[in-house]
## 1
Amino acid sequence: MENKLYFYNTLTKKVEQFIPREDGKVSMYTCGPTVYHYAHIGNLRSYIVEDLLEKTLRYLGYDVKRVMNITDVGHLSSDADTGEDKMLKGARREHKTVMEIAKFYTDAFFNDCGKLNIKTPDVVEPATNCISEFIHVIQTLLEKGYAYESGGNIYFDTSKLKEYYVLSNQSEKELLVGVREDVEEDGNKRNQSDFVLWFTKSKFDDQELKWESPWGTGYPGWHIECSCISMKNLGEYMDIHCGGVDNIFPHHTNEIAQSEAYLGHKWCNYWFHINHLNDKSGKTGEPAKMSKSSGEFLTVSLLESKGYHPLAYRLFCIQSHYRKPMEFSYEVLDNMGAAYDKLVKRIGTLKKEGEVDKGQFAEYKEAFQAALCDDLNFSMALTVLYDMLKSEMSDATKYALAESFDEVLSLDLTTAHAAKQEAQRVDAALERYILEKIEERKAAKKERDFAKADAIRAELLEKGIALEDTREGVKWKCVK
Ligand code: AMP
Ligand code: ZN
């Protein structure tokens, strides 16, 4: 690789050069969504940044294999080991089965990802597909003395490790206070920081999904799924593991504990974390992590219904450095929407035909890559894009560069403007057609040809247009 990629590694707590285990190849794992509700745009910030990282690696010439799990069982509503299974909670709320909820929200998640141009990872695996793998790893941990049975559950024994808090700067004591605050103590644990690998005894007798295991009928803990799904698809080593910063503890800390105890060697070299999207849901209106349970539940569909283009939100995420918290406000989103429209219009009106200047192309591509390699400095990469558009190059060279940069940015830079114009053209043509039909129907009614009038109404309805006769005349609306 000509360009050396640097990013912040939570494991070493510094910005480091990325060197994969195998030359030119990258294995990457992403903690997937818990599919009990729609993803909010905070969750989607993490997935947008992970997508940008993957596309940066590919742009630099790496061959990437990326794996993601779908959490459809075992993630409790508290991040420790108590509380209700989030999936069960979703099923109760909507009077559906857990599997129906999982299917619905998995589809909704990928639909949102599609609108944000987030590529689907090479492998996507639901936790419920891998129960036998979980059981195998837990069994081995028991045999190796890293796990114990207590009160019907299987726990990981954190005291067996030389170092447990490998990802965190905080002292053990501080972390434990954090855990204790919102969680009742589990008397079965030998150590406060131990965590559940397999539940057979939960507070909730009606847990819908349960499987046979050597320790009784039950279900897996949340953390075990990511270790097993990554090992199943990427083998015993992995280059980059990603997630939001809230996953550092306990989720990723526990993943490392159990994976390395099972494997007997170091598992993953680079831990990549994305800071939160905050809203004003703090107790006194101060910025706090956007979550599904507090503040306005902001989804991609909600933004669309308010007239925002989903890619304006992607642009917002691109402009904000992944290690800094991002403050959500409609004002910023308005600005992003305007900036997005202006940008794609500028690129969409370039004349793409003509000679591309190879020297200038290489020079700007180099500057763009240098920004990416500098701890994923995407706002600098955007500056390179704007500078390039302002420069004295031919339209064809600018167009070719925009197309190239979009392999990473995925903002539909060269196609969005034409798509918008086409949509406007279709809208105008449809409106003309509807108005003609309304006139035809009026004429038919005047001639007391009610069959024809009804046929016109039905034909429009078939096309998703409903007519309504009001005092002010005939009104129409889209119903599809
Ligand atoms: P979940 O569906 O809750 O398991 O979360 C899916 C992903 O979203 C994880 O990587 C979380 O770390 C991340 N995440 C959760 N809340 C936020 C937030 N407010 N901002 C950014 N990422 C988040
Ligand atoms: Zn995970």
Note: The pocket of adenosine monophosphate (ligand 1) is lined by residues 31, 33-34, 42-43, 45-46, 71, 243-244, 246-247, 274, 276-277, 289-290 (CB under 6 Å).
## 2
Amino acid sequence: MKKFADIAIAIPIDRLFTYRVPKTFKNKAEIGERVFVPFRNRDIIGYIVNFKDKADTKGIKEIKRIIDEKPIISKHLLELTKWISETYLCSWGQAIAATIPGVLKKGKVSVKARAGTGFEKIPVSTETSPHTLTTEQEEVLKSVLFKIEKEDYKTYLLHGITASGKTEVYLQAIEGVLNKGKTSIVLVPEIALTPQTVERFTSRFGEKVAVMHSALVGSMRYREWKRIIDGEAKIVVGARSAIFSPVKNLGLIIVDEEHETSYKQEDVPRYHARDVALMRARLSNCPVILGSATPSLESFYLAGKKRLELVRLTKRIDDKDLPKVKIVDMRMELATRKKLVMFSKILIDSIQKALDKRQQVMIFLNRRGFSTYVNCKKCGLVLKCKRCDSVLVYHYETKSLVCHYCNFRMPPPDICPQCRGSYMKYFGIGTEKVESEIARLFPRARIARMDTDATSKRGSHARILGEFKKHNLDILVGTQMIAKGLDFPRVTLVGVVNSDVTLNLPDFRASERTFNLLTQVAGRAGRGEEGGEVIIQTYAPGHYAILSASKHDYEKFYREEIKTRDELSFPPFKHIIRLTIRSRNEKRTIDASHKLKDFLIKKLKDIEIVGPAPSPISKVRGFFRWNILLKGKNRSIMCQALRKALKAYRKPAGVILTIDVDPASM
Ligand code: ADP
Ligand code: ZN
């Protein structure tokens, strides 16, 4: 009987709301449809998740209108979103809202769909027809296809070094799924950074592919979503939210570069797309492939416990060697040359040699801007953002000091705002300075820079990569934007200006991120016939993350890192839930954090509670931030307990509480 309906609403209140189904709608109302319901003196959108005969409260209001003719959220996605709301602690309505295009959240019935991909095409070197697989690739494909055939849930961790042919395996597995009349979802990190990968799917499967990414304007996104729900598109390639695509008959999920932190959503619902992928595959009885050259500690650990099946690609296609990696100890450089230098002699010589041979070079530094801080030589003041606890970075192109957290900008002062002295000095290196120094040292080289500043104009990203591909550029300087997925066979040298930028971050994943990034960057060298070389400059040449990256030895890195994680009770040994208290007033923030901790101690038994302590960046956009960490072995027990506890929590006025389960960084 469809007398009453439980409605999920996308607001941060962790419950459902009951409404009466008017007689006239009884035949029309279905689970998974959008409705308009009266809520606090206005009409808002909700989603029907359940029907019932009885309502337990009085004064129940009626549903105003049913928006959809038929369900737009499948039973299957409802189940998935319910799991998300329980696992990442948000309301069911908030989780459901994350699965549909923005225009539908506003209650529209149909939208003028606009064609287009939202980003420019970038030339790819791959051909459209399948390759004859190597023996290693064949093995991997065979076991995945076996599970697809049997309609069995299973997670494979595909550990394959860069250019070992992982993507080709994905493509052929999808082909197999397609032949069975089933659909596939392929997750890739931040599409804007991996256009070449996306191209390979569209060039192999054409119109059958729907591409979902954040740069799509509303009407384009709706068009792709519609092609999926209507069954026209059989393969979805997209960033993390593509895991919610309304495909029917799912046969395979692929999570490429599964270690990427961009799979974690930073806003509500704060889900991890890799974990959602595993749950969705379980609900669909299909296999998942998690692929990476540098698997996350979590996944590799689970593989060791046989909870995932590890499959390997150990050789590069055509048996090409991995590039040789040299570590340059910049402390020695400092000692012998008696000054801080940006480039070691060996790096300069190698760049020159590559240029002489008409080869291409990539220079990597994971920090943008020109100088990274401004310091008064007289009184010692370091210029900071007024709204954030962060140091202002000098950007040469815009002649301004910029906050990298809130984008506050100001002209650089000539005199010190504290002591009125005129000794403001600029220190630290960003990509802008690297570019200008390279231009000075190699005046005849054609140079471009790629970071979020240089590519903020639409299309410039594609243009720079296109020019580099055509060899109209000799040297490309960039941040992590140039680390991922790019395939330029003429690049024989990759230089890392300072590998310690990520290593020194206050984050338990700092070593992992450094290892991943160095491995990725190194993978850009030597993809062609001429081989390749990588030079890593560092002040910490003995660190295991740098040493094992230089030897392309993931397992050595894993063995070292897993020890540290165990000692410190970090993932994968314990799950972390981070509670952040924010307010505009420092004292109020601190007080509220301590009170919340006392409250949690009473409510949560057998869960380790750490803190409260200020966030690594303790103030952002005028909000002071303090954290409390919960640590425990069993995520679902922790989440259930916390969810229950928070129902009784009375938050002080003016304070914001956010909860992040399995945070990507600290
Ligand atoms: P990965 O995804 O591991 O980086 P790719 O799938 O991109 O590796 O493969 C690297 C290169 O080798 C690509 O240019 C791809 O087209 C090519 N390739 C992949 N598999 C084969 C194969 N079996 N035979 C020949 N070339 C291949
Ligand atoms: Zn700021």
Note: Residues 122-126 have pLDDT under 50 and may be disordered.
